[in-house]
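Summary for the lay section of the report: proteins are chains of building blocks that fold into shapes. Here we show the chain for TetR family transcriptional regulator and then a coded description of the shape we predicted for it.
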Amino acid sequence: MAQARRSRAHMIEETRAKLIATARSAFAEHGFANTSMDDFTAAVGLTRGALHHHFGNKEGLLIAVIEEIETEVNEHLRRVSAAAPNRWEGFRQRCRTYLQLALEPEIRRIILQDARAVFGDVPAAAQSLGVAELQAALDQLLADGVIAALPTPVMARMIYGAVTEASCWIAEPDAELNERLHQALDALERLLDGLRVTGEHP
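The coded shape description reads as follows.
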């Protein structure tokens, strides 16, 4: 009986993973609005009922794809931070890298265009993860005396909002991506410099 339950759980997880992986590829190539769920489910050998069972609807599937990508993005940003020579540079590179990721086709299409068009913003769960990571970094910088005393919960939200809005601006359809990225990175440096204790150096 236990083996049967494990096998069923494995099948459920396998079906869910297959739907997310295939949707991720389709949304990145065609966009959310242009992806047909009937064609999509048939392509992976599943029924539309399987989609509704696991995600409720097409929007629910998009949320699952967004959360998977955002988790990967945060893992990448952690590695970037960890590779930096000090905590301030790690924080700075984390923010800069987030902006640079706006040039990645999959992130540009799914996170910065489709999520905004369908939901008005990135889903709350993905936002919470990004804000929490920023707040943890700010708390450590504050404890180290690198940044001036400030309420880190609100500052983390403000920085998250700033880099997210800038990323969406960079990723707008028909935008000059590299020029917008350059402008956004310059503005980010000015913003982050304002956090530091006067005379503090990495």
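Put simply, here is one thing we learned. The CA atoms of residues 68 and 124 lie 13 Å apart.
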